[in-house]
Amino acid sequence: MLSHLLLMRHAKSSWSDGSLSNHERPLNKRGEKAALAVGQALTARGYAPDIIWSSDSTRTRQTAMRLIRAIPGAQTVNYHSDFYHASVQTVLSVCGKNIEPEGRLMLLGHNPGWGGLHHYFTGQYHDYPTAACTVLQRTDYKSGDWLDPKSWRMIDLILPRELESELESELDR
């Protein structure tokens, strides 16, 4: 059974090469730093994912690899082409076709679907910027459906700009 469900939007991508399709766009330097910082924050806070289910775009693959670099131990990454610019319903459908994994699962993808997933699971609207990560913890609610929003409560929302502010504050001390 899952203990934590993490929802993360890919880190900031580059628009510099106009010959690439949207699916092929890589991370830019800021995105590379943000993905690493979110991975470090997840590890430090005890939320590092055991399993990542990700869109198969270049920027989500690179985000996943940056996260993994910051997380000790082995993680499994499974790429789902259906997650590429997926709606909330598509993501839930893809997840529902899989057996609920053990441990901590991260769903990694794109807006507007991931902002919609944040709303679906938390009931809260939030501007969901690149590299945002919602951390949900299992509740005692026993519906039998791991994708039921009542099964989860939000315990953290990690935003890269706040991580940058925290780092700057520590450096100023």
Write the layout of secondary structure elements.
Blueprint: E1 2-9, H1 29-44, E2 51-55, H2 58-70, E3 76-80, H3 88-96, E4 103-109, H4 113-122, E5 133-138, E6 152-158, H5 160-172
Describe this structure in words.
The chain is α/β, with parallel strands linked by helices. It has one domain: Rossmann fold (3-Layer(aba) Sandwich). 35% of the residues lie in helices and 22% in strands. The protein is built from 5 helices and 6 strands; from the N terminus they run βαβαβαβαββα. It has a 6-stranded mixed β-sheet, sandwiched between helices. Helix 1 packs across helix 2 and helix 1 (29-44) crosses helix 5 (160-172). The protein is globular, with a radius of gyration of 15 Å. The N and C termini lie far apart (42 Å).
Features:
Rossmann fold, 5 helices, 6-stranded mixed beta sheet, alpha/beta, globular
Q: Give, in spatial order, the strands making up the sheet with the most strands.
A: 3-2-4-1-5-6
**Count of DSSP H/I helices:** 5
Can you give the mean pLDDT? 93
Percentage of residues assigned to helices: 25-40%
Brief digest:
The protein has helices spanning about 30-45, 60-70, 90-95, 115-120, 160-170, and strands at about 1-10, 50-55, 75-80, 105-110, 135-140, 150-160. By secondary structure, it is of the alpha/beta class.
